[in-house]
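Give me structure tokens for this 301-residue protein.
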Amino acid sequence: MFNVLVVGQTGCGKSSVVNILAGESRAPTSDDLGHCTKHWTEYAIPVDGRSFQVFDTIGFLEPGLDTEGYTDAIADTYLAIDVLRKRGGIDLLLYCVRDGEIEKMKGHYRLLHEVFCEEEVPVALVVTNRGVNHKSYKAIFRSHKIAYMDYACANITSTPVPGSSAADTESQKAIKELLVKCCDARPNPRSTLQQFWRRVQKLVGTDQSQSLKRNEVSTLLTRRCKMQQAVVEQLLTSLNLQLPSSRLYRAPYAGAATRELPPSENSAGTQDEQVSDARPSSGSQLHSVVDSTSLHSRSDN
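Here you go.
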């Protein structure tokens, strides 16, 4: 079983991508910038003989438009990440972005990849509204310092059904191939020395990389994700990180950890049941993306 988290800004076509992948209308969609997904939702979708648990999340609005809605959406996405953390981790972060809005994704990409998930969690990108791959986006992603395993382009105007257009069928094929390719790969971004040092730290009990202190989260949000301080404070409240001693646990790369797990009780017997609605407690934690020793040495550009 492969755990896939689908993320992106509001209106970028996340739910449409889920429907294209499933080959039928499963996730609610909308033609405007309103939230068609009100709470993260889990779907069991088989692809080429593999079992995927696909988590559709709430889209992010610009914080200037609705700060409370923005921070609540991020907190809800964290709930999905925390569920995946407890199941063993995430196999793939599937980031959806509309063509022409790639330059806006850097802050959210860093939030998800560096703050909420370990950097070992691979990222795949889906550029929506493009249909077949008409141009290369490699240089564009590189210029914005977006690290990813691979990407695909998708036409999100309709869900593939018998008689679908060639573009829709091609989109479904491209997304399926992207998921299979990225989840079958074995990302290993850390050097052998780094991995050895992490093991030593865990053995002696000094490894703090699986969680971040409140002040570390605040620093990452302002310096790396370029959030305004007022937005940061509201987000910390939404994540129940009010106390200085609060810690945020980050979700690790699942790798082989989720392969043998049986389907969750929430998804057994139903294909698209919504899971857990509990907010994280003040002691909630996240598994690490960035080693705590590198928080202040990393470039903020």
